[in-house]
Specification:
Blueprint (H helix, E strand, L loop, with lengths): L1 H20 L4 H11 L6 H6 L18 H7 L13 H4 L6 H10 L3 H24 L8 H15 L1 H10 L13 E9 L5 E9 L5 E10 L4 H19 L3 E6 L2 H8 L7 H13 L4 E6 L6 H12 L5 E4 L4 H23 L1
Helix pairs in contact: 1-6, 7-8, 10-12, 13-14
This protein binds zinc ion.
The site of zinc ion has 9 residues, from loops.
Length: 345
């Protein structure tokens, strides 16, 4: 049983990675991620969140509108997915969009996955405008629209997305360019979930430690909000210190994509992103970067420890907190090694 769960866990981690690497704009990646985790405000999900409404799909009026309904089985949208390339999916009974995505990924067909996600994104947009305006959408136009859209993405944006794909490979901490500081930020939650910790570690272009700060807050919010909040706290601290040129690095790819994309989000997350962008205008140069957790250990560790500590906001100058000393050393060793390796080439 546990092996089966482990396999699904691996598949899901893999699915998330693949979805983020797809050559689609960040608004579609974000949508896909929310769909995969069943976080879209379908009528069923709204009902589950305690909103008093009739969860029946208003398009077909035949069934409850959950994610599988609107992105697969609703009689108004089935023609969208009627293409023969999806026919193998028809032979199975899918209980969730997650199941459909897992299925597409286990078939190893990334193009088909991309097509399915773009189609769902389009369907969701048309569904939303139907709920806003009451005008019946023409879903039969979706397949052609998607074909053109994907073709356009492939031809015009190839360069941009190829560039982005490379940043997924950043696994180690790297020194910022000369004249820049780098602030790594992280967020963590205590075991009982009642406290959140945030950590920020500032280093210069030699890789030397400048300062670190930790914050503790009561309560808990979802992981994305925590990660955005870590960046917000970090930026406010940088402004206090009057740092002008900075790279801010987080291990949350989704948050970095929010911040570097042009999409406007309507949510509490969107509001925080707007605040960060406006504070960003006070810097001469501010860059948001993603690094894998392996390259963000000191900030992450500081955040985790802060979440379970007795509390408060602390700042360390010149000498790092002992709890992260060894992790900072490891970062510097890996930096030195990669420089040495570089000099041999
Ligand atoms: Zn329906």
């Amino acid at each position: 049983m546990s092996t089966h769960h482990d396999c699904l866990d691996d598949l899901d981690k893999n699915a998330t990675k693949i979805m983020w690497k797809l050559a689609v704009p960040s608004k579609i990646s974000i949508f896909s991620w929310r769909m995969f985790h069943n976080l879209l405000p379908t009528r069923f999900n709204l009902l589950m969140r305690g909103i008093d409404l009739d969860a029946t799909c208003k398009l077909c009026r035949e069934d409850v509108e959950d994610d599988t309904h609107i992105f697969w089985s609703c009689s108004c949208v089935t023609m969208v997915f009627a293409d023969s390339c999806f026919s193998f999916l028809r032979q199975q009974h899918h209980k969730s969009c997650k199941g459909i995505i897992r299925n597409l990924i286990s078939h190893g067909n990334v193009d088909m996955l991309q097509e399915y996600l773009v189609m769902c994104w389009r369907v969701w947009g048309m569904r939303n405008s139907f709920y806003q305006t009451g005008t019946a959408p023409d879903f039969s136009s979706v397949p052609n629209w998607c074909t053109k859209y994907i073709h356009q993405l492939k031809t015009t944006n190839q360069q941009r997305f190829t560039g982005f794909g490379q940043c997924l490979l950043v696994t180690k901490w790297k020194r910022p360019p000369h004249g820049f500081c780098k602030l790594n930020v992280g967020a963590g939650r205590g075991k009982c979930g009642k406290k959140m910790g945030f950590g920020a570690v500032l280093r210069d272009s030699n890789g030397s430690f400048i300062a670190a700060r930790s914050w503790q807050q009561a309560g808990h919010v979802d992981k994305l909000l925590m990660e955005v909040n870590a960046i917000l706290l970090g930026i406010k601290w940088l402004l206090e210190m009057q740092v002008k040129n900075v790279e801010i690095e987080s291990d949350s790819l989704i948050v970095v994509r929010y911040l570097t994309g042009n999409d406007r989000l309507v949510s509490s997350l969107g509001h925080l992103v707007d605040v960060i962008r406006s504070l960003g205008a006070s810097f001469t140069v501010i860059l948001f970067k993603h690094v894998l957790r392996t390259g963000n250990r000191p900030a992450h560790h500081l955040a985790k420890l802060t979440a379970i500590s007795s509390g408060g906001c602390f700042t360390w100058w010149q000498h790092p907190p002992p709890c992260i000393g060894h992790l900072l050393c490891t970062d510097n060793i890996s930096v030195t090694r990669s420089r040495l390796n570089g000099s041999h080439i």
